[in-house]
Amino acid sequence: MIIYKNRLFILTITVIVILIIAIGCTSSKDAATDKDSSSANKIPVSTVKVEEQTVTPVLDYSGTVEPWSRAALGSEIPGRIVALNCDVGDIVKKDSLLAELGSENLIQARAKYDAVKKDWERIITLRESGTVTQQAYDQMQAAYEAAQAGYEKVRISTQIRTPFNGVITKKYLDVGEVYSLFPGQAGSPAIIELMQIDTVKVIVAVSESQYYKIALGQEAMLKLDAYPDTQFVGMVSRVAPTINRLTRTANVEIRFANNSGIIKPGMFGFVKISLPAVNVLLLNRDALIKQEGVGIFYVFKVQNNKAARVNVIKGDSFGDFVEIKSGLKQGDMIITSGKMKVKTGSNIQIVSPEVTK
Question: Does the predicted TM-score (pTM) go above 0.85?
Answer without folding.
Answer: no
